[in-house]
Every structure is written in C-alpha cells, then in structure tokens.
Amino acid sequence: MNRTALPSGISEFLLVAELSSFTLAAEQMGLSRARMSQIIRQLEQNVGVQLFHRSTRVVSLTSAGESFYQQCRQGIDQLHYAIENTQEMHTNLTGLIRINSVGGLFGEQILAPKLATFMRKHPKIRIELDFSSVREDVIEAKFDVVVRMGKLEDSSLVGRPLTHYQNYLVASSDYLRHAPKLDHPKDLYNHTLINGSVKKWSFYPQDNDKKVLDIPIQASFQCNNGHVSRQFALKGVGITRQPSYYVEQDLQEGRLIQVLPQWKLAESTAHLVYPKARHPNARVKALIDYLLEAFST
C-alpha cells in the first residue's frame, strides 16, 4: 500500500495552534515570524485546506484546522510514547509523570504516601503532583493521569476504579439538640447544610439499594475542602456529607453523630483517569499498575 509522505511543518503547526500566535511560536523555535508564516502556508498548500483564521490580533484554528490539530496531536503523542517505551524497555524507569488529583485528606494522607513509595522503588522517576480543584481537561492540560472522585462522564477517557468510600451524613450533638426534626431526607430543606461541590445528595433506604431519592442541596456554607467542612460541623454550624476517611474516628469517639442512619448515601469512588487515545508509556503504566495494586490491599 502506498502511503502519502508526511508533509513538513507539523511541529510548527502544533505550536502555533497551542500558543495561538505565529510570533510566540517562531520565538520558541528560533525562527523569524516570516519564516514561520511561510512554513504554515506551505503546509496548508500541501494538505489542501486553510488551517488558521488570521487577523492582525488573533490567530485561531479553522474547523478543518481544529480536526487536523487533534489528530496530529494524538499521532505525535503516540509516536513519542512509542519511542519512550522502546527506550525504557532496556533501562530503568526514568522521566516525569504529571498527576492532577483531588486534594485534602485523600490527596495528602492517602495518595501522597503511595506516590512516595513508588518513587523510592523508581528513584529516577520525577513526579509533579497538582491539587488544583478545577476539573482539568486531561488532554489539554497534558496530565499523564488524573485522580477524580465521582462519575466519569467523558467517553474519551479511561477510568480505572481505585477505591470506594462510604459517605456519612453527620452533625454535632450541639447542632442536633436545637435543630428542627429530621426523620426523612426531605427534612433537610429545613436545616443548615454544609456542602462541597456536589449538587445533590443521593439517598437509598437501607432495605432497598435500587430506590434512590435525590435531594438538591442549597448550602448555607459551601467549601470544596472536606477538612474545613468537618470543622464547621464540629463547631455545630450544621449538617455535612463526608467520606469515611474524614469522619470515621469522629463518629467512633462521639464528636459527630450520624444523621438519618436508616438511609444510605451513595458511595464515593476514586478513579484513575487517563486519555483513551493515549497509550501510557512505560513509566506511566508502571505507576497505574502500582496504584491499582496499592489501593487493592
């Protein structure tokens, strides 16, 4: 089968697309702006379509350019991974792994120690661990893996379940002593609620896992940090929904009380996420395999 020779200018095209600037891309590659424009014009002639909208201020991809960019980016990434995999098959694991994860107690005290153990096993590995709470675009942000809580909705990503945590509805005895009645999840509408980013709390009767009752949450205090929400509950501010690793000891020692124990809350699942189209290189695959095993024990 005859294959069309790859046109030159792919690397330049990708950089211009990612920086949205001929000038910045040219500076980064040590070229003049005129030379960069010439390379892109030649590439457009070779592929037979206009790839960029050009104006004096803005450079943006055309619809054809966007499609071309996505496929080129995927192909170049896979080529880089193939080269790295081949090299790492004959050497110790080395290089950088970029990770984005939920933070708080999970990231700091559960995930981080496991990453430290992995690095001791592979001392030439470098890790960048990011705890930003914004849901990063895994592909655009160029993270190798992301640890997320909750449902995986993006079909372009692979989600491997790491672990599950039971959630509890809790409050202090001081709050409950003076609070309105609370016999049913719908009674929560009359209570002071402390919440993170979850828009609704899903309840199941203890005797029926399939019958779900969703309660939309209007929180009096909202914070994505579970430790802070726990502190507010301990101070008697209101009711909060927290995973077991935040409140299990408080429940055992009586500092917090489980609310509506006749109802179960949906579990939280931590997923290890990475792009479906991107084949993990040897070091990333080693980390994925290690974390899946470490969380299973």
From TrEMBL:
The keyword Transferase does not apply. It holds the Pfam family LysR_substrate. One of its GO terms (biological process) is DNA-templated transcription. SUPFAM superfamilies: Periplasmic binding protein-like II (SSF53850), Winged helix' DNA-binding domain (SSF46785). It comes from the Bacteria. InterPro entries: LysR-type_TF_proteobact-type (IPR058163), LysR_HTH_N (IPR000847), LysR_subst-bd (IPR005119), WH-like_DNA-bd_sf (IPR036388), WH_DNA-bd_sf (IPR036390). Keywords: DNA-binding, Transcription, Transcription regulation. Residues 13-62 form the HTH lysR-type domain. Belongs to the LysR transcriptional regulatory family. This is LysR family transcriptional regulator. It comes from Marinomonas piezotolerans.
